[in-house]
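Before the break, one more example. Copy the sequence into your notebook; we will annotate it together after we see the structure.
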Amino acid sequence: MTQLRQESPPPCSIVFQDAWGPQIDGCGDNFDLTLLYQEVVLFIGPLTAAIVLAVIRDWQLMGRRVVIGSPVLHLLKQGGFMLLIASHAALLAVQITLRTSLTRATISASALGISGAAILQLTSHLEHRRSVRASSVLILYLSYATVAEALRARTLWSIPNNTAVSATQSVVPVVKAIILGLELCRKQVGPGYGRRLTPDEQASIVSRMLIWWMLPVLRSGQQKTPLAPESLPDIEHTLTKASDAKCSCCDDKKDSRGRREELIDDVLIGSSIFGHIWATRRWLVLSAIPPRLAYTGFLFAQPFLIHKATNWLAAPLDTNTYRSGAGLVAAYAIVYIGLGVSQALYRQYTARSITAVRADLVTKIQSHSLKLNASSSAAQDSASTLMSADVERFATGTRNMHEAWASPIELGIGLFILRAQIGLATAAAAGLTVVFVALTGLIAGSAGKRQNEWLKGMEERITGTTQALKAIRGIRMTGASSVVRRDILALRRAEVRRMRRFRQVMMIVLWSMFIPVIMGPVLAFTVYNVYVGPATGVVLTPAMVFQALTILGIFGNSIALLLESSVNIVTAGASLMRIQAFLLGANTRQDKRSLLPGSNSRLATGEDDDNDDTDDDDPLLLRPREKRQHNRDVSDPASLRRKLSSNPSMLRLTRACAGWSTDGPMVVSNANLSASGPTIVAVVGPTGSGKTTLLRMLLGETEHSEGIIGITSRRIAYCSQTPWLTHASVRENIVGSEGAFDHDWYNAVLRATALARDVGMMAAGDATRVGNSGSSLSGGQKKRIALARAVYCRAPIFILDDPFNGLDGRTETAVLDALFGPQGLLRTRHPALVVWATSAVKQAKFADRVISLTDSGDVRKRDSLLASFRQPANSSWLDIESPGESGDSGRESQEWATLTATKSPRLSAIELFEGIVVGQHDQPSSTVASEAAIREDGEAQASGKDPAAYRYYIGGGGRRKFLVFLVVISLFIGASMVAQVWAVRWAQNNVVDPTRFQGLYIGVYFALGGLQLVSWSAAGLFFIFVIAEKAADRCHAALLDTVLSTPMSFLDATATGKTINRFSQDLQLIDTELPYNLLGAVTQALGAIGQCAIIVYGAPWSGLAIPLVAVAVYWLQRAYLPTSRQLRVLEIEAKAPLFSQLLETLAGLPTIRAMRWQAVYARKNRAAVAASQKPFFLLFCAQNWLNLVLDLITAGLAVAIMAIGVATRSSSAGSTLGLALFGASSFGASAKNVIQHWTQLEISMGAIERVRAFTAETDSEKNDGGGGQSGCNAFSGQGQGTITFVGVSARYTPSLPLVLRDISLDIQPGQRYAICGRTGSGKSSLLSALLRLLPLEKGRILVDGVDICTLADPDAVRSRFITLPQDPVLIGGTVRHNLQLYLSHDDKEKQSSDEELSAALETFGLWDVIQRKGGLDADMTEDLLSHGQRQLFCFARATLLRGGNTVLLDEPTSQADRATEKIMEAAVRDRFGDGSRTILCIAHRLSTILEFDTVLVMDGGAIVERGSPRALIRNRSSLFAGLMRSQVQQEKRH
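Here is what the structure looks like once it is written out:
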């Protein structure tokens, strides 16, 4: 002790401190930095940087408004800075006075401290008042300065006779710590801010670095109440909405009501999607660069720390040895914590930029969808794929986008440091890297091309699936499920073939990544030991090996990230290019209409009033006739009528032509027409004449048009031929997007469209949800709701496309009279111009004017034909004089006779009464919808809290195959661990004798490298191309089988977007993300386990830390998994509304644009995007939080190993401790990779869990059968055609009333039965029960003596029938494919030749139309055939069927014009009326049932009357006769 005291170092006077150092030398214990170095480098430099940043920030804040209150907190902050200024001033005064600690920079530093504190005080003031978030500049600087000032105070205390200065300096860090605490306090928003702040908006830089603001979300996920979308916190608004300037995707800046249309347009800034992202989101993208650079700095501190630690262990013991050891422990803590925090901040900023760009892309796709050409099916089909697959490929591919520039920097730094260690041997590793980077560069270009090919295949599969879902009821009824399944599986196989080619490129990239990582150290150490070492005389020591291995590990990881990120960026860029092609493509509607003078309420006046000469020039000018005054007082409508009548023209066509393609024929040619309001114009013509095309031309919806098309208002009330309804309530469908609700007008519209009774009978009234495309409604209800929407709109112009066809006679007449009659809404309360196409010529008697279209598309005036409808009852309001009409009246009469001819004059206008049906299946739709919603909600919360999803996926790929994969990948991990130990042993041998056993070490080292390459390649190829493909195909087949067999009630009540989301988003995750993430997670997890073994081998005492790490990881997953699983499910579920909204928008584009609802739908789209962004971003943040905590656990492990090494210091353990430290750094890298892959795997496994839960928990109609015998075993041959009902009662669900009650019926072969009845009588339910669409509660149904309820497969009975549903059943593919839709490819005997196919089409007058458009190989697109022609096509297909002795007709002619109906009736007689087939028909017109053998009258689900139709008519007391009398009387009145 005496010797130690004698050798005590001298005190550190100012002479020693006034040196650059940085380490002090010659005083104290030499374990400090010089005061001059601290003042210049640690004080002046950081403070100068803080001042510069503060001034920039002050300039940014000057222009902002005051948004924050918290006056007390503001005063405390300002007081703290005043105290800081005083402290710096006092310090400067004491320093100048005593001069005991003055260096060359002391006065400058103290003066800068005073001025800097003043500037920072201003920044604090502005940040507090004008920013919702705590100042990042102040927090970062004060956090650093508090520690730096404390170190400076420690140094000052070591200077003799310096107590006053030291004490004053000690106050400074205390004051800065207090200010730091105040700055970290949360501020309160002022009352005028306007909205509530989100947690991430309020989070300080510390909270963002440590992701503390996510802790409430993580705690919520552990509660018993599951997370729900509404319980999630809001996220920053810049991440939920597109960043474009506001503009409009409509033609006007304001709509017709003067409301400004705030739409995010689809225009790209700079006409490039890349330039657009850079222009709008560049600061978000660039914000990740500083933390990424900091991460690189901390990363390369690791090899120096390991080298320093190894040398420290080998150095002799002195007085500073343990101080240096403690410094190393502190350095390890700083470096590893810095690694975790910098990477977390970098990942968070990357997540923000990806989330923001995702909002931009989805919003732009949806916005552009509002502009698409309604006839462009290809563009519409690609929209959903772009929004799902391409956007997600972008989000996935850009997760590591900053590695593309950071990795080359790290490679350069790594090569520089490595060259200093092993010299020219670095060239071996560098050369290998260059070769495989170049190889990756050569194939990276093909990755984007092959990805696009694969995405195109995915798009075709999703399109086919969507078309099948739209036609699922008809597919079920006709028994075509197996054919549709075959077609979709064929599309899936084609997609997999394309995907396999893309995967081949990805596997080559992965192979290129691993070869430099595996073989780089082998080549480098071999070259050094063989050439460099002997030449330089420097032996490769263990310390050099550890540092080189660490650098090579960083080097290899950088190579892997560079190659992976490069390919991912290429694929992400390819997806962006697809989106750009969609946004910039020639796929938008070209509206060539021009606006005539005037608007919807104020029309042209003055010179336009005197325009009589136009009548002479334009033979098709349609003007309102003089009408007799009504005995009523309507003030405002009368004024509006006068204004409308004063305008010469609200609609004008001059030599207008229209067609559906630029290279195809014109459907409407040389049309000249002028019409003013209020006038009702009826458009008639045969099927396929172009009535719909004419109306679409008036809407500006035809793809190709010529001539002049003029209108006075672009806001048009439009009702399409096929009703467009959204998955909403009845009221929401009627009111649409019309703004404020008008209760009186709404009730008037309900009465006028005969919906009041329907709504009153629904369980939830007008709050009843209508299902997908109105699936829970009858056909008539769907048409009347769509018509009610158009009437409620109250536009100046109405365009109605055959909205009354398909209604029963009484309802049709009532609605026509309520709308167009003398007291009709559109004549009294809202007089307007109505252009109305009808296929039922008798309806035209309600019109003021009539025009017709010929087969060639010519428009002709037919006003003279109104005379044939003149009746005394309506002569008071319909003036039938029509002077001056052109054309030959005799020829017109012949053409009109052709249009109105019927088979039998006595049946020409009499229709069978058809009641208003509540639901297509006679069921309250609200109940079914609610039950389905309950099932979906339950599924949404099935978050996979057990390993069932993993078992399901592994079982799909093959458990034995997966076991083989585990064995092979374990062999790879074992070889890599042995290679690390072998390199250390080789270095230890070099210290003894470099030449001893050198050949052995080199040979074994190369063998271990080769074993790693072979085993990894075999495992990767086997898993990706065998296990993953098989498992994904199983998931797709299971999804498809479940959807095709689930009860119709489930599909009716489930939004189509939810189902499509399973086939798009879920399958995409299973195909793309899951295989690579599972492969990476398994590989890295086994690697982490191997590194733990290395750690224990190198430092046995560190094994004590491993259990602590295991406990920490256990509690970590307990905290993370519940929340992440729920967020994962919510993230996937949140995408379903996006697809539903998009599909509904695409289906109703003409209606949305006609009614000028683009702005409303754009807002709905933005709301859906914002809702989907929350779980997406929060899941991203939860994953980053997990990554951060694991990094901190790794830091704890590294610090523990170093601390144990210091405490148990032994020079002989240097190499093994170095191995343990290297293992710790490798463990950290492996653990982070595990987390990265595992978090993505959790998302992918969410898709597997959804598939598993959906297939396991969704009911199947195939499970309803009791006996379970197959159709092949039950039926033999075609059968005779007998149908027997024995005491059948049925209900749709247990909670609903019976819809069939004790039905007993015996139909013998060859008999023809017709069914009629009133509202809710059970007609459709009877047919549904026969087709196994409705489960039976009791009784039996026998077909050819077989109880159909015992059949395991309902299609076995459906295939026995030839079924013609009301709606045409057409799917994707060619004309030939659709004609033979119900035939298997293997059934060659039943397939028809091309000659037979064309002859069938010729019979129905379709062959010429189809031949002009490509013949049998033409694609069956929406615009190929008109609606009536599609019905004829289905009849033609039915005539080709050679099997089936029973024909079921479900009102197949209800929506056909009389000419088309005649053809269909003739087909039924000629093809099925020979007495060899049994016919069961729900008829629409009397002409289809009077010749039948028996008619069944149903009421209340029971058969109340049966007999011969003519016998029942003769019995005047029968219900059937009463219906007939009522119908005939109605026709006489009109």
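Residues 289 and 402 are 8 Å apart (CA to CA). DSSP finds 49 helices and 23 strands in the chain. Try to locate both features in your own notes.
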